[in-house]
Write a structure and sequence with these properties.
zinc, zinc-finger, 106 residues, mainly alpha, elongated, binds zinc ion, Znf_DskA_TraR_CS
């Protein structure tokens, strides 16, 4: 549980940093983008890509915040949908998930 929380906090920090790079790109604030991303952006040469990455990152962040809030409330390993325990192996692979595998498949 503690591990998962710190993992989520690390992930949150990463995504927050990434988001600020996207925002810098959108506002043309210098070349702060990382290499992979620059290549990707050059290939498509399209700000829509950054837009959609930004949207995706924001929704991932929201999910992480949500998972962290559930951990703080002591229900981090319970399925949000059915209330059953989420398989620890699933939490290891998807630390930000808040539903069990059965509910995720529905
Ligand atoms: Zn469930």
């Amino acid at each position: 549980m503690t591990n998962r929380k710190s993992e989520l906090e690390t992930l949150r920090a990463d995504l927050t940093a990434r988001l600020s790079r996207y925002e810098a790109h959108q506002h043309r604030e210098g070349g702060a983008l990382d290499k992979d991303f620059e290549e990707q952006a050059t290939q498509t040469q399209n700000d829509e890509v950054v837009d959609s990455l930004e949207t995706e990152t924001r929704s991932e962040l929201a999910q992480i915040e949500h998972a962290l809030a559930r951990i703080d409330n002591g229900v981090g390993d319970e399925c949000e949908s059915c209330g059953e325990a989420i398989d620890p192996r699933r939490l290891q692979v998807l630390p930000y998930t808040t539903v069990c595998v059965d509910c995720a498949e529905d």
